[in-house]
Write a structure and sequence with these properties.
Elements: E1 2-4, E2 32-40, E3 43-46, E4 49-53, E5 58-64, E6 68-74, E7 79-81, E8 84-87, E9 94-102, E10 104-105, E11 107-111, E12 115-119, E13 124-125, E14 130-136, E15 140-146, E16 151-153, E17 156-159, E18 166-174, E19 176-180, E20 186-191, E21 197-198, E22 204-206, E23 220-222, E24 226-228, E25 231-232, E26 238-245, E27 254-259, E28 262-265, E29 271-273, E30 279-285, E31 299-300, E32 304-309, E33 311-317, E34 322-325, E35 328-332, E36 338-343, E37 347-353, E38 358-360, E39 363-365, E40 373-381, E41 383-390, E42 394-397, E43 400-404, E44 410-415, E45 419-425, E46 430-432, E47 435-437, E48 445-453, E49 455-462, E50 466-469, E51 472-476, E52 482-487, E53 491-497, E54 502-504, E55 507-509, E56 517-525, E57 527-534, E58 538-541, E59 544-548, E60 554-559, E61 563-569, E62 574-576, E63 579-581, E64 589-597, E65 599-606, E66 610-613, E67 616-620, E68 626-631, E69 635-641, E70 646-648, E71 651-653, E72 661-669, E73 671-678, E74 682-685, E75 688-692, E76 698-703, E77 707-713, E78 718-720, E79 723-725, E80 733-741, ...
Parallel strand pairs: 2-9, 11-18, 33-40, 41-48, 49-56, 57-64, 65-72, 73-80
Antiparallel strand pairs: 1-2, 2-4, 3-5, 5-8, 6-9, 7-8, 10-13, 12-14, 14-17, 15-18, 16-17, 19-20, 20-26, 21-25, 22-24, 23-32, 25-31, 26-30, 27-28, 27-32, 29-30, 33-35, 34-36, 36-39, 37-40, 38-39, 41-43, 42-44, 44-47, 45-48, 46-47, 49-51, 50-52, 52-55, 53-56, 54-55, 57-59, 58-60, 60-63, 61-64, ...
């Protein structure tokens, strides 16, 4: 800044004259003012100062330096226009201040869509430097950056000094590009590893027929369109160019490149093909292999493409009579081809032509193939002589015929009058009527016909009762036939007729047979006399009868009243009821019948409740029987029926028995009355019921509200739940029910200290006492407490509180209680899960307060008169303020803290990056929160969750209640859930500060880092930065509410319980190793 000031010393001039009573002298003084200047920035005010008389005007010219402009000018009530500042009517000394500022430079940016430019600042002024960083899209390289007289240096574009408005322009080139041909086939070209980019001068896909391209070797041809790509790279660089086709590459090919206007094949070591033959990778070098211009200039030129040996097709023109194989063949330019000629049966090869070839046996060898060509062959059909011959007894015609291969021929066969055609054979033919047709003629052959004399047929038929043999026979005309006639057993020959024959014994002989005829034989059956007789007691009918041979006869056997058939014999028969049927009768025979008097079975049966004896007995016709009837215990005879009998006492006598009969006895069961009565407190139903002997009865027992069943007795029964079932009833009896009052379950509460828990419960009426159970297992019941090492304590009704002593500190105990009366125990009370307090043996930090207060002021120096003995006057905080506290590290007031690196090593107090903090007084090591959005981010929150039933206060909390409120949350991964348990696991896996024993702090441990000398947050932020003024979870559950846990509010250092489903912050701790 340039300052100038002009100080002018003005003398006050006065004129002194003598005394003259008749003359007066007047003197006037004109005031002058100094106008000074003050300049800020690069520029000048000219002149640097002015002296103006009162009322005069003056001007200053503002002269900015190059690149600067007038920012403002003020003072002395002047006006500014076009670099001239004018002061009018000077009235006092004053100062004009001019400010100059660098002129703003407008820097604009232009780039394609594949590069982003980032300037080092938003606005520029004259003389500023510019640093431009850039970011490329994947698949693109920088082409150039220009403008503002800058230069690219180490991937930064720098402008030393701006002097005028300008534009910075950036362009890119792709490392990969998709080209399309006229047939819409696409080729994707990529420069691998970012070693080059594709220039816009690339022509892409071009056709091999392009007239500007030289001809390819006559034996080769391009099997697809060519690719012309220009690649920008570093001078002399070797790159890999990947070309991806839509269609597979041929198995054999060379990659041709245009070098010096001639097609040259790339070495195979520079060409790689993918397994699926869709991708080709070329190794190209600027100025070397594969560079069409052959110059080391940072550009690799094309074109090129895969070429294959030119192929020609030899086709076959097949004709009837034979075949040429193969039917077609692809042949490389200049090669020959070999074909095989085969001739069908019945044909002869005449000639083979085409492709300038030569026939050698069955092989046809072409000349060198230079274009597509065709091979054909001609064949001729073979002829054969077929002859015919007839045996004695007929003729065949014609006797010979000429046939071509594959023809069929017909011959006529004629037999003489007394002859038949016996057979026609030869030339694989068949006879239909008298026409014989050969099979397909494949060579010379002969047809032969034979004949035999005509015959007549003599048949025979036999009626029932015999047979005739043979049943049929063939004879030459004029011969005689003999037949044997045989009657069946029991039959005789009745008559034989036909064919003009005669019977002699069993032989029937025909006359000479001149035509077909039949012989018939008939037979008659034999008959016998059958007689029957009866013994005493019955009759038979009929006494005699005639029976045909083989038939059976029936005789009715009738016993007299009171008799039965004893036996029937003779004629090999069988008895069915009163009918006797003989077997087949083959001679005269006799039947005899005998009889016996009847006896009957008297059977007896008893219904339920008794017995009869005997159960069965045999009684002769007309006699009577006796049966003894015996009822079971508890039963009486109800009725006895059957066999027309009568009951006398226990004896039942039948009437005269004339048939089988049955006696039936029934019994009735005895019944008794079962009564029921109930005492005070309940009822029974029914109060009376009739029950059969030996049955049991059920009585339902109900209790009034507040009562329970004490006992139910009588009738030798038992109670199951609310139903009393008697024993077996054998006489009248009574059931009696008695009731008693139900003891209520008490409600308990408890308060824990370090090694004791005080349990309280409400007082109950109508009970005899209380029983308390406690153990460290949540599964405790009055029945199993001893299994878990639990304790049982009994109390009378005068006690309603009890202290459990000698307990383990920091241990969760489960407590239940029952009441009882006259041996009956109530249901279990509410179950308490309460944790004894931690027996703290570690040193405690001070509060961090180093000032004192009175009734109306704080932040006062200590001590304060009348308010002595305040917190700040004692302990570590007081020593720290007095300068007598020795510390290992740093920290506010009495806190002694050391920063730790990622491996847990000590860092100096001046370190700007650290991961953990060690409290040198308590020995605890604490997690440090971050602001990087990672695992330890200050904004992350968690639900309270502890699945360990021994330390969670009776409720594990919530595993996934808040959802996505912390880093890395994934609903499908329990390990990422935002709860305190999962967070501890994740931090230990990470090995924060080289340790894997991180845990949740207890309530007292977390209170130990609260700095009550500050707030929002109430912690030393020089060591614990990024601490939210909010609630942080402790591991301590809230004893009175199982769904609550303790937290510390680091806004003001307040400790309070909150519900476990809330989402709060977490700071982990571990013990010093």
């Amino acid at each position: 800044m340039k300052n100038s000031a002009l100080f002018v010393l003005c003398a006050l001039l006065t004129a002194c004259g003598g005394s003259d009573d008749n003359k007066t002298t007047n003197q006037t003084t004109i005031q002058s003012y100094t106008i000074t200047t003050n300049v800020e920035g690069e520029g000048q005010l000219q002149p640097t100062s002015l002296v103006l008389k009162q009322g005069e005007s003056g001007t200053f010219e503002l002269q900015p330096e190059q690149g600067y402009q007038v920012a403002s000018v003020e003072g002395c009530n002047g006006t500014y226009s076009n670099n001239i500042y004018t002061i009018e009517n000077a009235a006092q000394s004053c100062q004009v201040t001019a400010k100059f500022e660098a002129r703003a430079i407008n820097v604009t940016f232009k780039s394609d869509e594949y590069i982003s430019l980032y300037a080092d600042q938003n606005d520029y002024v004259y003389g500023d430097s510019v640093v431009i960083n850039y970011e490329l899209s994947s698949g693109y390289l920088l082409n150039e950056i220009t403008g503002c007289n800058g230069a690219l240096n180490d991937e930064l574009y720098k402008v030393d000094a701006l002097t005028t408005d300008c534009q910075i322009t950036a362009t890119t080139l792709p490392t990969s590009q998709l080209f399309s041909g006229e047939d819409e086939a696409q080729v994707n070209v990529t420069v691998l590893d970012g070693k080059g980019s594709i220039l816009s001068s690339s022509k892409g896909v071009i056709e091999p027929s392009n007239p500007k391209l030289p001809a390819l070797n006559s034996s080769l041809e391009f099997e697809r369109d060519l690719l012309a790509v220009d690649i920008a790279t570093e001078a002399g660089q070797t790159i890999e160019l990947q070309i991806a086709y839509e269609n597979s590459l041929p198995t054999q090919f060379t990659y041709q490149k245009l070098i010096d206007q001639q097609w040259q094949a790339l070495d195979q070591e520079n060409v790689a093909v993918s397994e699926d033959r869709l991708t080709l990778t070329l190794t190209l070098t600027d100025g070397g292999a594969g560079d069409s211009d052959g110059v080391i200039n940072g550009v690799i030129k094309d074109p090129g493409g895969p070429a294959v040996v030119k192929m020609h097709t030899v086709t076959i023109n097949q004709s009837a009579g034979g075949a040429i194989t193969p039917e077609s063949l692809a042949v490389a330019h200049g090669d020959t081809a070999l074909f095989t000629i085969s001739t069908d049966a019945g044909y002869t090869l005449e000639s083979v032509t085409g492709c300038n070839g030569n026939l050698n046996g069955t092989s046809y060898q072409t000349a060198a193939i230079t274009q597509n060509c065709e091979i054909s062959a001609e064949y001729s059909l073979t002829s054969f002589l077929v002859t015919a011959q007839a045996g004695e007894g007929g003729q065949i015609s014609p006797l010979e015929q000429l046939a071509s291969y594959g023809d069929t021929l017909r011959f006529t066969v004629t037999a003489d009058d007394d002859q038949n055609i016996e057979s026609v054979q030869g030339c694989n033919g068949s006879l239909a009527g008298n026409i014989y047709t050969t099979g397909v003629i494949t060579g010379e052959c002969e047809v032969r016909a034979t004949f035999d004399p005509q015959i007549v047929l003599v048949t025979a038929q036999a009626g029932m009762g015999g047979s005739i043999s043979p049943m049929s026979q063939e004879l030459n005309i004029g011969q005689q036939a003999s037949l044997i006639v045989t009657p069946n057993e029991g039959y005789s020959i009745a008559n034989v007729t036909g064919c003009s024959g005669s019977l002699n014994g069993n032989t029937y002989t025909t006359s000479a047979v001149t035509a077909n005829c039949q012989v018939q034989a008939s037979f008659s059956i034999d008959s016998y006399t059958l007689s029957a007789s009866a013994g005493e007691g019955g009759t038979v009918n009929p006494a005699t009868q005639n029976v045909n041979h083989g038939s059976s006869a029936q005789i009715t056997i009738t016993p007299n009243e009171g008799y039965s058939i004893d036996g029937v014999t003779g004629c090999s028969g069988s008895l069915n009821g009163n009918t006797y049927t003989t077997s087949a009768v083959t001679a005269n025979c006799q039947v005899q019948a005998s009889f016996s008097i009847n006896s009957y079975t008297v059977s007896s049966s008893a219904g339920e409740g008794g017995a009869v004896s005997p159960a069965t007995q045999s009684v002769n016709h007309g006699s009577s029987a006796q049966i003894t009837i015996t009822p079971k215990e508890g039963y009486s005879i109800d009725a006895v029926t059957g066999c027309s009998g009568s009951l006398n006492g226990n004896t039942y006598t039948t009437g005269a028995v004339t048939a089988n009969c049955q006696v039936q006895a029934s019994f009735s069961i005895n019944s008794y009355t079962v009564s029921a009565s109930a005492g005070e407190g309940g009822a029974v139903t029914p109060t009376a019921q009739s029950v059969n002997y030996g049955s049991s009865a059920q009585v339902s027992v109900t209790t009034d509200e507040g009562y329970m069943i004490e006992r139910v007795y009588g009738c030798e029964g038992g109670l199951v739940e609310s139903v009393f079932t008697t024993g077996l009833i054998t006489s009248q009896c009574t059931v009696t029910a008695e009731f008693k009052i139900i003891p209520k379950a008490p409600t308990i509460s408890a308060q824990a200290s370090v090694q004791s828990i005080t349990v309280s419960w409400d007082s109950l009426d109508n009970i005899a006492g209380y029983t308390l159970y406690y153990a460290t297992s949540e599964a405790i019941t009055p029945d199993n407490y001893n299994d878990f090492g639990g304790v049982k304590v009994e109390f009378d009704t005068s006690t309603t509180t009890h202290e459990l002593t000698n307990l383990q500190s920091n241990t969760t105990y489960y407590i239940i209680m029952t009441s009882h009366i006259t041996g009956t125990e109530s249901d279990v009370s509410n179950k308490l899960a309460i944790t004894t307090q931690i027996n703290i043996t570690m040193p405690l930090n001070d509060t961090g307060i180093t000032w004192c207060a009175d009734d109306s002021n704080n932040n006062l120096d200590c001590p304060v008169t009348g308010y002595e003995g305040q917190d700040a006057e004692h302990g570590r905080d007081a020593k720290a303020k007095a300068g007598t506290l020795k510390k290992v590290g740093g920290g506010n007031a009495g806190f002694d803290l050391t920063k730790l690196d990622v491996n847990g090593n000590d860092l100096p107090e001046s370190a700007t990056t650290w991961s953990c903090v060690r409290d040198n007084h308590t020995g605890l090591i604490w997690e440090v929160k971050t602001d990087d959005g990672g695992l330890h981010d200050k904004n992350d929150r968690y639900n309270w969750y502890n699945p360990n039933s021994n330390s969670n206060g009776g409720s594990p909390g919530y595993q996934d209640y808040g959802g996505d409120i912390c880093y890395g949350y994934d609903v499908n991964n329990e390990a990422s859930y935002c709860n305190t348990f999962a967070y501890v696991e994740r931090v230990n896996i990470q090995s924060l500060c080289g340790a894997s024993d991180w845990r949740m702090p207890t309530r007292l441990e977390l209170m130990g880092i609260v700095d009550n000398g500050t707030k929002n947050p109430a912690i030393d932020t020089q060591y614990f930065p990024q601490t939210r003024s909010s609630l942080f979870w402790s591991s301590s559950p809230y004893a009175e509410i199982i769904y609550g846990a303790w937290s510390v509010d680091f806004g003001h250092g307040i400790v309070r319980y909150v519900f476990k489903d809330d989402g709060f912050h977490v700071r982990l701790v571990r013990a010093r190793p």
